[in-house]
């Protein structure tokens, strides 16, 4: 998340976060949520800070997190016995891997597979071109393709932070990118995660997160 806005002078009340920065932070949080969780973490360790941070942003952005809270509570109840036993299957990374990594992949995070049924195709190439135009490069330890959900969401956060500093070109690119890419794959990702619950109930949480992404999208143009 972005650092909180600093006070103008000692004793001043903190300035309210702007809508643009709130959206940047929300995209950043959601990007992290679609990366593999730390090894050994339980669902509660992963979900509690995420839910808290999104709740802080919800009033500014008008987010409805009811479905997400319900999904986490439902999956937590389902996993209670597993986690109390302390076995390796309690690891939230195991659930993530079953949904997004283990063949046959139920919910691909490379959005070219969702949009055109191919890996490293047109979607990935177009996303990479947008990153170049936006002066954005993924972290060196990020080993996936340019169309990965997390990379796209982080790119939007990066552009919105630049826009907050007065970069009008960054704001325009963010709007175009969201409409062309994120708005196209977010509903498909939600549907894929919902289908994946048949094999791994934890996918219910990521389906709800995909729905939160859709709440951030601009209204369709007429």
TrEMBL record:
Q: Which Pfam families match?
A: Nitrate_red_del
Keywords from the named record? Chaperone
Electron transport recorded as keyword: no
Question: What Gene3D superfamilies does the entry give?
Answer: TorD-like
The protein's matches in InterPro entries, at most eight in alphabetical order, are given as: DMSO/NO3_reduct_chaperone (IPR020945), TorD-like_sf (IPR036411), TorD/DmsD_chaperones (IPR050289)
The name under which this protein is listed is Chaperone protein TorD
Taxonomic lineage of the native organism: Bacteria, Pseudomonadati, Pseudomonadota, Betaproteobacteria, Burkholderiales
Encoding gene per record: torD_1
